[in-house]
Fold this protein.
Amino acid sequence: MILNHIWGLYAHPKEEWHTIDHHHESLSYSLVHLMFIALIPSVCAYISATMIGWNFGSSTSSTIMLTTESALVMSIGMYFTLIGGVFALSYLTFWMAKTFGANPSFTQSMELAAYTATPLFMTGLALFYPEPIFLMMVGLAGLSYSVYLLYSGVPIIMHIPEERGFIYASSVVTCGLVLLVCIMVGSVIVWSLGLGPIYTH
């Protein structure tokens, strides 16, 4: 039951948004979904970094692998960062709602953010084939579909006209980009403090 909306979000997104809006499960339900789906990129990154390696050149000598301890620390950090990012986006969505004539509960905002982030998080499966061009293409496709889900879901979940929902969704996308920049800057700061990746060779 945790993942019962995933197929619908891919097969018939607008109908699935209406289903989500109709049922409005508890906040804990959305949270469990988020905690489960955030495991995908985190676990895949750990396996890829320790067992497969990342190849950024044409020879096997350029394959990069991390130590088990370093990969574990980075995967755990990634996991909580992903969850924290969705929480922050949920709060910003909730905070901006009245500006656009919506009056959602925080649960609705969390549903919107968690289900919107799902395609992007699922691109973590591509880390099992860690080729840069492939990862870039899959990541771009996942991001594009997440943005589409956001634009199609905002009017339904927030109960506002599509025209206003478009502007609302655009504001959420902008906030998401700002959050992404903040996460990247934070990662650089953490790495500069000596907590960066440790390579096997």
Remarks:
- The mean pLDDT is 87.
